Amino acid sequence: MSVFSARTGLAAVALLAAVATGGCAQLRSHQGYVVDVDLVNSVQPGVDNRQSVLATLGKPTITGQFDQGDWYYVARDSRNYAFRNPRPNAQITLQISFDAKGTVTAIRRSGMEQVASISPYGKKTPTLGRERGFFADLFGNIGTVGAAGAGGGNNGSNTGGGRNRP
């Protein structure tokens, strides 16, 4: 075996090792709001309103769904290796509550305790209902629309408050 082929083989192994270890490098990512502690601390309950919070912190990540009294600013740092799923490393959730007039009433901060880890259970999600197969789901509603006791029609009863019509 010549010295040249031994060096070429050694270089190929070193190159392959460098590529393999490069694929295991940790990837970091940031999602959501970029938190500036000084700006967040400048928002005061009872002093600021929606317009001043919008001017100071910017548009919220999420607004309350049922009432528009809460704004949420969410920031998450994640890490992962190669092709694995990202895992949250740190998270900050800033919740700002407003009253009916738009004045800040409360500011709450939370962290990683709000992150839920959900693991799917096999190929099927367990439910508290009855077990139904494919054909029961496909043909299960045949005959129930408009049937007595199924809520499909008014069955001759007067639910509209007016006269019964034939």
TrEMBL record:
Molecular function in Gene Ontology: protein-macromolecule adaptor activity
Signal sequence, start to end: 1-25
Key words of the record: Cell outer membrane, Membrane, Signal
Residue stretches making up the Outer membrane protein assembly factor BamE domain: 32-107
Region (Disordered): 147-166
Record GO biological process: Gram-negative-bacterium-type cell outer membrane assembly; protein insertion into membrane
Entries under PROSITE patterns matching the protein: PROKAR_LIPOPROTEIN
Signal as UniProt keyword: yes
Gene Ontology cellular component list: Bam protein complex
Highest taxon of source: Bacteria
Pfam families from the UniProt entry: BamE
Claim: Ligase is one of the keywords in the record: no
Designated name of the protein: Outer membrane protein assembly factor BamE
